[in-house]
Design a protein that fits this description.
By secondary structure, the protein is of the alpha/beta class. It has two domains: 158 residues, NADH:ubiquinone oxidoreductase-like, 20kDa subunit (Rossmann fold), CATH 3.40.50.700; 89 residues, no CATH class. The chain contains ten helices and seven strands. A five-stranded parallel beta sheet has the order 4-3-5-6-7. The chain has a two-stranded antiparallel sheet with strand order 1-2. The site of one iron/sulfur cluster has 13 residues, from loops.
Length: 262
């Protein structure tokens, strides 16, 4: 990949970007590599200096750091601090980085030693509660989703390069679901968090006949009591609602409130 691209003889700025993974399944990074149709276009926008899933080189000179995964070990805090020092823009990449993601499910258990024994047996693993990266360093930009939606990543990166404001949808998944002319899953007997979850995934799950689990966190002004009423009206328990709200960590404050009320 040439270092400097030109268009009509004019040099185009291609920021140096790096990808890092903390505790994660690396599925968010895989999303980018999977997008073969537009991968070359994407790579013409940026100069990738580190991306373990896609290249062997690992440069340390970057302006934008995409960090995937949640923080579950002390050494990751040090790693994050180092990345933050070098990066002009720090991006929390995917729901693990934004909210703790599926990793934070273990935080529900009060006895973390028991969790370790159940999962790892006698094998020693240094693992603590799962936290979003914003607990450790300042984050400039969140890209939500488990996994992230590749089309959205490309749009956000393009906006970043053009110096445009990056706006996430304020409305819920239901808007995109209706625009896709789906039959509402509640009418088919399935629960769905679409009414309270931030859109941007093009109603990925409901469009494939699966209820939303809220991986992108709450939409602006998410009406959780109304969500609870909709679930109850369709015969779903508070536990079913909580299972979904708790899954990715984005609704943590709401879960706490519901649990307090009992
Ligand atoms: S957000 Fe989901 S897909 Fe991305 S790293 Fe975490 S678990 Fe994997
Ligand atoms: S299926 Fe889910 S996202 Fe779609 S309209 Fe029904 S509640 Fe909303
Ligand atoms: S529909 Fe819900 S769970 Fe599925 S990708 Fe979108 S926000 Fe995530």
């Amino acid at each position: 990949m040439p270092a400097n691209l030109t268009y009509l003889g004019v040099e185009l700025a291609r920021p140096r970007v790096a990808f890092f993974e903390l505790s994660s399944c690396e599925g968010c990074q895989l999303q980018l590599l999977n997008n073969e149709a537009t991968l070359l276009d994407f790579l013409s926008l940026v100069e990738v200096v580190r991306f373990r899933e896609g290249m062997t080189e690992a440069g340390d000179d970057y302006a934008v750091a995409f960090v995937e995964g949640s923080v579950t070990r002390a050494d990751q805090e040090l790693q994050l601090a180092e990345i933050r020092k070098k990066a002009k823009v720090m991006v929390a990449f995917g729901s693990c980085a934004c909210f703790g993601g599926v990793n934070q499910l273990k935080n529900r258990f009060s006895d973390q030693e028991w969790v370790k024994r159940e999962v790892y047996g006698d094998f020693h693993v240094d693992t603590q509660l799962a936290r979003p990266i914003s607990d450790v360093v300042k984050v400039d930009l969140m890209i939500y989703g488990c996994p992230v939606k590749k089309e959205e990543v490309e749009r956000i990166v393009t906006d970043l390069l053009l110096g445009k404001a990056i706006n996430h949808p304020k409305y819920p998944v239901c808007m995109e679901c209706k625009a896709n002319e789906n039959i509402c899953l509640f009418d088919l007997g399935e629960p769905c968090l679409g009414p309270v979850t931030r859109a941007g995934c093009d109603a990925w799950c409901p469009s494939n006949r699966m209820g939303c689990w809220g991986c992108r966190g709450p939409a602006d002004a998410a009406n959780i009591p109304q969500m609870a009423r909709i679930m109850a009206e369709h015969g779903f328990s508070t536990e079913t609602l909580l299972d979904r709200l708790e899954c990715f960590g984005g609704f943590a404050a709401h879960v706490e409130e519901i649990r307090k009320k009992g």
